[in-house]
Design brief:
heterodimer; A: 113 residues; mainly beta; 7-stranded mixed β-sheet; 4-stranded antiparallel β-sheet; 11 strands; 50% strand; B: 112 residues; 6-stranded mixed β-sheet; 5-stranded antiparallel β-sheet; globular
Amino acid sequence: EAGVAQSPRYKIIEKRQSVAFWCNPISGHATLYWYQQILGQGPKLLIQFQNNGVVDDSQLPKDRFSAERLKGVDSTLKIQPAKLEDSAVYLCASSLEGYTEAFFGQGTRLTVV
Amino acid sequence: SQQGEEDPQALSIQEGENATMNCSYKTSINNLQWYRQNSGRGLVHLILIRSNEREKHSGRLRVTLDTSKKSSSLLITASRAADTASYFCATDRRNQGGKLIFGQGTELSVKP
């Protein structure tokens, strides 16, 4: 069974530029999560989708971050414009449904300079 | 906001010893999960314990849950150097659609 795929693995951008991350969850998984993990901290939930609907985006900085889940499968997370404090690893995870184990991708390491 | 808090923040032991990590949380939960993260990699699910369960085992892992104290512990027995990683607890709250919230983690170092 293929795991959660994320791309790119690494990205370096200048502040005020825009960036997009892509995630392909495990086939059949209804729930998709995006997390931000700053070095030395635990993952912080940015947004949770159930199929193509948003379950929770209370921690998403909506003035600069946006996310969508096309047709309830793939998802993209965008930052525009980026700030220095956005430097982090962005993790995508999926699960069959809420309240079950989540499977994580390898993450995208973003450096904003 | 983070739901869980792990204790200790860092733990260093010798191979063969047992490692115990604790997690406390604030609100009522459906499930509590433990994950492992090796440096520079994604998180790997270790074990899920439901709110009506008190103890669960998986290989060398033993997890306990005390809902009255809102706490959980993860015990790794007979640790190996390969167990060196960060360990996170994650909770999903009742009536919040499986919103999975992580703690800050415990960094475990197992010396050969």
